User: Fold this.
Amino acid sequence: NTFWKAKCLVRDNFTCQKCGVYNTPQNPPVQIQVDHINPFYKIMADSSITTLQEARECVELWDENNGRTLCLDCHKTTESYCRRIK
Assistant:
């Protein structure tokens, strides 16, 4: 959801919440992403979501308090990156 991502990015000032990196003219470009703290796939399973409409209507999926801004490198270290379980 683009609106959810935008709200999280603005709230976090487009800054990685793990390492503090952000894009500036002096820094090389850093890919900034938004991560679900409680993983997307887990919310989908726990809520028995099977349709796009159900996902759109699920409040927990789009709660900005369940989102955090991370750079790609920090995102890759999360337990659920690309649905990977450590």
About this structure: The first helix runs from residue 2 to 11.
